[in-house]
Amino acid sequence: MARRTMSLLPQWSTRVFSVELDGAAHYFSIQERHRGEEAPRVFSKVQDHDRCYSLLVCGGDRVGRAKFYAELKEKLLRDLPPECDVSPMSSFLPNVKDSLIRGYFLKDNSGSSSPSERLLRDLIRRDPVLVCSYLKGKDGQLCQHLWSHADSQTVEMSKGYYVVPSQPPEYHPSTLNIINSDVFYSFEDACEVLKECGDIIPEATSVMELLPSRAPARSKPDFPVIVIEGLDATGKTTLTESLRDTLGATLLQSPPQCLSPLRARFDQEPPLVRRAFYALGNYITAEQVGQEGMKTPVIVDRFWHSTAAYAIATAVGGPVCNLPVEGSEVYRWPSDLLQPSLVILLTLDPEERKRRLRDRGQGKTEEEQELDHNQLFRLKVEEAYRRIIGPACVTVDASPSADQVLQQVQLLIRGKCHL
Ligand SMILES: Nc1ncnc2c1ncn2[C@@H]1O[C@H](COP(=O)(O)OP(=O)(O)OP(=O)(O)O)[C@@H](O)[C@H]1O
Ligand SMILES: Nc1ccn([C@H]2C[C@H](O)[C@@H](COP(=O)(O)O)O2)c(=O)n1
């Protein structure tokens, strides 16, 4: 643990820390010397008697880290005193890709530091975490003390760093680690994740056995390939089935049928593993498209746009303006994935979508419930859909009757694919 702490120290003083407190992001950095002047308070909501700590998840392998981060919040909420608030926190090097470390900020106003500190000492001894405490210095300024663990003893490092407010970064920190943690741009990169979890998730081996040996050739099939995208209950199933019947097409879906028995298992996993699973589903579907597309037109219910848009919207906290800017490399199409002839995005007024969901009355996945409750998340998914290129999607208003939507889409297909 001591060695890991030390390996981060060279960058420690150039890092920015972000804490989500009361719905707002607070950014701070640290300084070795006190500049003399009174620094503005970083956390206006932190009272003088509150004890504050941060926990950053680092070290170990990326699958272990992702799983530990997902479990840590539950552990903290379960084992800390109820007077202790737990908020998301991160540390990053501004505009440096892959530099984000996630964790939690604890604000303890229980009046006794013992239970929290016991838990933190236990965590630092056993788990891949860096722990800091925040104390007022002699001059009244807040200082960050990095804990270290050596020889079975946890000690607060004697030297404190002064905490000073920092400007919000140009790019939201959660965008720094998207590539290869949330979105995978090649078959190899997504496969790598499943290979790494074979020991702890036996189902990963089952997925590997269903995969082609490499990314299927990207050569265009003889017949057009049309992908239908959209949030749940926008009418994808209804439309894709009608298109299959009217065009004499083959209907496929991503994730493909063969992954259905494994899907619920991967939906429980942290984003790194879950998104790799969905990314690989697209390659299995692409292989099927390659075969069927030599015989008939192919309609695909969800494909890459869904994989990338949901992953990006989940990874990026806060409002739509936190998304990576339009034209960012995160919206690019994977270089080894078959490109459809046309991608249609069905959009629907949120109230009508809710009505259709209610009428359908089926169970919902956690992400679907999130879409329902969280207006911001829905807006981010829709905006991410629109920003993806190579091919970009064509938006169709799905509020008219099913027949009218079908006609509108048939017109687009005739124009673009000459069917
Ligand atoms: N144009 C339409 N007008 C009115 N109702 C519709 C229309 N299209 C579909 N519906 C109804 O809305 C509900 C959701 O449609 P559907 O199952 O096709 O959506 P979906 O996008 O495939 O959903 P999911 O992604 O959750 O599977 C269904 O009850 C369907 O009958
Ligand atoms: N190609 C795909 C298809 C689906 N997903 C993910 C995104 C959502 O979490 C969920 C939505 O699918 P549904 O419940 O409507 O079948 O599945 C994906 O990432 N990639």
From TrEMBL:
An example Gene Ontology CC term for this record: mitochondrion
Pfam families to which the protein is assigned, alphabetical: Thymidylate_kin
Domain (Thymidylate kinase-like) ranges: 228-408
Reactions mediated catalytically: dCMP + ATP = dCDP + ADP; CMP + ATP = CDP + ADP
Signal peptide, first to last residue: none
Gene Ontology molecular functions: ATP binding; dTMP kinase activity; nucleoside diphosphate kinase activity
Subcellular compartments: Mitochondrion
GO biological process: dTDP biosynthetic process; dTTP biosynthetic process; dUDP biosynthetic process
Protein name: UMP-CMP kinase 2, mitochondrial
Natural source organism: Dicentrarchus labrax
Biological classification of the source: Eukaryota, Metazoa, Chordata, Craniata, Vertebrata
Gene that this sequence comes from: cmpk2
